[in-house]
């Protein structure tokens, strides 16, 4: 059995705690590896390592730091196929979808390559008599990221690329369910020229997370995962004086206005609702048709599409989606479907008994579709995180606007319409952090920022884009007054950054 340790000081090291977790291959249901779960002492050792390495990296000029990321982009391109396969094997998503997971991470690495420009401060000449004022952004020191299972390449890159570009050392605690890709990314960063100790990976569970939250040398923590853990991490980390940003769960609605192109809306719902088996924080899990006629037409078109979804092993490049991540998660999703029936929702398509020939032990589930879901039901209020779509019928636009606005989660939302006025009004008024207009999954591109509202996000600054530079740096402002007069001789060689 393969064991996965930690990545500290530029190489993989064995776990010392004696505790391990199973890493499954969801498409077959087998255990593919055992991952070491770090003790508090192992986390501390990683932090010491990072702390020793950080000052030299922080003092390296930002162009050189960016060049490491540029080389890393090249190396990931070289290894793209093997990374996507490894990712699909441990997560369960299909290989084409795994490629997207990697690509959306690389786009943030590309953004972080602009760090020499992004970290520039401000300058005011003559703020007073003979006085100039300027500000500079400096790295925080050692920072950490705690990431979820569902994007094992993208989210680690969203965290470590801006942090490291800014001159910090980074401790990554990836999900214990699919740790191999994060380990491989750390190796590639070292191959790209990153000094040892600037990116350390500690695998683990609550013990490792708590050690990160309590460590006095970790200055900031970025978290992505479920909301209850996000809230816990936010409160414990911030009460220990750290900067903390935590992104949580979601219940993303898609409003279908009576004038929407219904074929387009159905395509969007199928892809955004069932892609990656619904295990995306930006998946659409609630469809809100506006008006009786829209609802009837939508249901008529949607049912056959859900019934004919192609579910296959992660290696089947023609499959719409693959297995869920673990047996425990599969059971949880099925339990929600049972709950929905008990709560009185109408199950139009039941995918619970789906099995795949030759892969009988894999964690598969067919698509499920509920109609007549109401805001009081738990299947509406809670995140299911599986291939289950709920239809909540709205009588009019105002009611449709109210549903996502009043929901406890506020990650993403979409409206499908041909009416620019309605779309504009919706975007302005809806109480949700990321909005799509005829776009079902409005994940902002890398140079904008990503973040949900309400119980989908704790803390003030978003992920990637300009907010990530603010999050991973502190601002120092200098006020200076100099006696006038030239002090130095002329310099004849053009100054360079080498
Ligand atoms: P999770 O909350 O179970 O785990 C996330 C991380 O927290 C992991 O690294 C895990 O080891 C750690 N963790 C788990 N339990 C812990 C505990 N009791 N104490 C301390 N740490 C603990 O989430 P998951 O199942 O890996 O990921 C799915 C969730 O992540 C969904 O809710 C999804 O919506 C959310 N998510 C949100 C975003 C976003 O940007 N808002 C993006 C992706 C996923």
From TrEMBL:
Organism phylogeny: Bacteria, Pseudomonadati, Pseudomonadota, Alphaproteobacteria, Hyphomicrobiales
Enzyme Commission no: 1.2.1.27
Organism, scientific name: Chelatococcus composti
GO molecular function: methylmalonate-semialdehyde dehydrogenase (acylating, NAD) activity
Domain Aldehyde dehydrogenase as annotated: residue spans: 14-478
InterPro entries from the UniProt entry: Ald_DH/histidinol_DH (IPR016161), Ald_DH_C (IPR016163), Ald_DH_CS_CYS (IPR016160), Ald_DH_N (IPR016162), Aldehyde_DH_dom (IPR015590), MeMal-semiAld_DH (IPR010061)
Any one GO biological process: thymine catabolic process
NCBIfam families for the chain: MMSDH (TIGR01722)
Record-given protein name: methylmalonate-semialdehyde dehydrogenase (CoA acylating)
């Amino acid at each position: 059995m393969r064991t996965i340790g930690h990545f500290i000081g530029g190489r993989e090291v064995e776990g010392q705690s004696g505790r391990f977790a199973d890493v499954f291959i969801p498409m077959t249901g087998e255990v593919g590896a055992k991952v070491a779960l770090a003790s508090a002492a192992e986390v501390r050792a990683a932090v010491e390592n990072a702390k020793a390495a950080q000052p030299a990296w922080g003092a390296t000029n930002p162009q050189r730091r960016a060049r490491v990321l540029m080389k890393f982009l090249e190396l990931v391109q070289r290894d793209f196929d093997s990374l996507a396969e490894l990712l699909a094997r441990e997560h369960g998503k299909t290989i084409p979808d795994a490629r997207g997971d990697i690509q959306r991470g690389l786009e943030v690495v590309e953004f972080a390559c602009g760090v020499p420009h992004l970290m520039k401060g401000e300058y005011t000449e003559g703020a007073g008599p003979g006085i100039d004022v300027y500000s500079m952004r400096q790295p925080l020191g050692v920072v950490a990221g705690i990431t979820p299972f569902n994007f094992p390449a993208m989210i680690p890159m969203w965290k470590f690329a801006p942090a490291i570009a800014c001159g910090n050392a980074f401790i990554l605690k990836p999900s214990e369910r699919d740790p191999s890709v994060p380990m491989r990314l750390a190796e590639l960063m070292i191959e790209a020229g990153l000094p040892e100790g600037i990116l350390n990976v500690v695998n683990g569970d609550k013990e490792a997370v708590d050690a990160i939250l309590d460590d006095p040398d970790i200055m900031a923590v970025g978290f992505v995962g479920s909301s209850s853990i996000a809230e816990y991490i936010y409160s414990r980390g911030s009460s220990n004086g750290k900067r903390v940003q935590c992104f949580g769960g979601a219940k993303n609605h898609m409003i279908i206005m009576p004038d929407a192109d219904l074929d387009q809306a159905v395509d969007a719902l199928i892809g955004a609702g069932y892609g990656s088996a619904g295990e995306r924080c930006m998946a659409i899990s609630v469809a809100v048709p506006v008006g009786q006629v829209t609802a009837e037409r939508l249901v008529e078109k949607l049912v056959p599409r859900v019934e004919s979804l192609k579910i296959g092993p992660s290696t089947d490049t023609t499959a719409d989606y693959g297995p869920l991540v673990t047996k425990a998660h599969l059971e949880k999703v099925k339990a929600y479907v049972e709950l929905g029936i008990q709560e009185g929702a109408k199950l139009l398509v039941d995918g619970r008994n789906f099995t795949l020939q030759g892969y009988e032990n894999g964690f598969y589930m067919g698509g499920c579709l509920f109609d007549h879901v109401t805001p009081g039901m738990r299947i509406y209020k809670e995140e299911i995180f599986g291939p289950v779509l709920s239809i909540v019928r709205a009588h009019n636009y105002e009611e449709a606007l109210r549903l996502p606005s009043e929901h406890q989660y506020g990650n993403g939302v979409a409206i499908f319409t041909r009416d620019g006025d309605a779309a504009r009004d919706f975007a302005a008024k809806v109480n949700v952090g990321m909005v799509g207009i005829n776009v079902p999954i409005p994940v902002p591109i890398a140079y904008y920022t990503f973040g949900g509202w309400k119980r989908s996000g704790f803390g003030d600054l978003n992920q990637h884009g300009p907010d990530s530079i603010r999050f991973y740096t502190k601002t120092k402002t200098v006020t200076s007054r100099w006696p006038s007069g030239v002090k130095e001789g002329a310099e004849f060689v053009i100054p360079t950054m080498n």
